[in-house]
Amino acid sequence: MIMSNNNENHAHTTLPSVARFVWMDRAYMPLSSATVPITAHSLHYGTAVFEGIRFYETDKGPAVFRLQDHIYRLFASANAMSMRLEHDEDELTRVVCELIRRNNLADGYVRMIAYYGDGISLTRDDLQTHIAIFLLPWPSKKMKPIRLQISKFRKSDPRTIIHRAKVAGHYVNSYLAASSFDQSRYDGALMLDCDGWVAETTVANIFSVKDSILFTPKPGSILPGITRDTVLKLAQSMSIQCIESNVSMDHLKHSDEVFITGTASEVIPVKGIDEADIGEGAVGHITSQLSNAFNESVRGRNSEFLSWLTRA
């Protein structure tokens, strides 16, 4: 997260306050009771894994968007870290839905985190795994087109970390980029990979449109986001051709449209990168189409993708 002089138009806004009731190690409790010891292994070594998930108000009540996919990725991230979770997917699904009801929320954000408890030593055999889930009220609002600055910080080499895993320690890289761009002139940071190809922003994937074809960086130095996957599937359903490949900065700056995607960001148009304007600097036609399709899907108004919703 980063601070900005204009939080209303920022790609990565500061999160609102956490809702009152949380769940931690199979117990519901007030937020004030959910504490972690200062000796927690994951605090010292960044070994937690986590998920950010959105839920939305629909005509049939709150619904969590792609909850099963997020939970599946949590387990995959834990497996990548050799972390054993003593919970199953059904239990975590029930907990998320119950928290939405207990906190009486219609729109919001779910943060699910698994972490190692007490243990001051880089590797040890007796680490205990803990899981916590909490919610944040998060009303949806339309974001204006943003301008990104190319960061001096590059994405970590895929030979050094597991990019497909959502690991807390990986985000130091993103934090450095997010806290170092010119916040008086830009709304977010765009990161390149170690070879100079376009990667992603600090917390969102990036797409471009050229001659009505959608382009996005291929997996490797990016987290293949679930919102990214959503947009790819929506594009396919709308017969929009999409190419996953290495994307150069020259290609990106000379695109007709650019937008970013993420659980928090949803779909946000990009009007410029550094000093270069993208297209006419306004929301492009395909960006608008995909954004509308995304909004219809999360609100339960797209019958083709109702399976993406878990009713709370």
Strand-helix topology:
Elements: E1 21-24, E2 27-30, H1 41-45, E3 49-58, E4 61-65, H2 67-80, H3 89-102, E5 108-116, E6 129-137, E7 146-150, H4 171-178, E8 188-192, E9 198-201, E10 205-210, E11 213-217, H5 226-237, E12 242-245, H6 249-253, E13 257-262, E14 266-273, E15 276-277, H7 285-298, E16 309-311
Parallel strand pairs: 7-8, 7-14, 11-12
Antiparallel strand pairs: 1-2, 1-6, 3-4, 3-5, 4-16, 5-6, 8-9, 10-11, 10-13, 13-14, 14-15
Descriptive report:
- This protein is of the alpha+beta class.
- The protein has two domains: 16-137, Aminotransferase class 4, branched-chain amino acid transferase, N-terminal domain (D-amino Acid Aminotransferase, Chain A, domain 1), CATH 3.30.470.10; 146-298, D-amino Acid Aminotransferase, subunit A, domain 2 (D-amino Acid Aminotransferase, Chain A, domain 2), CATH 3.20.10.10.
- The chain has seven helices and 16 strands.
- Strands 7, 8, 9, 10, 11, 12, 13, 14 and 15 form a nine-stranded mixed β-sheet that branches. Strands 2-1-6-5-3-4-16 form a seven-stranded antiparallel β-sheet.
- A hairpin with a 2-residue loop joins strand 1 (21-24) and strand 2 (27-30).
- The longest helix has 14 residues, at 67-80.
- The relative contact order is 0.16.
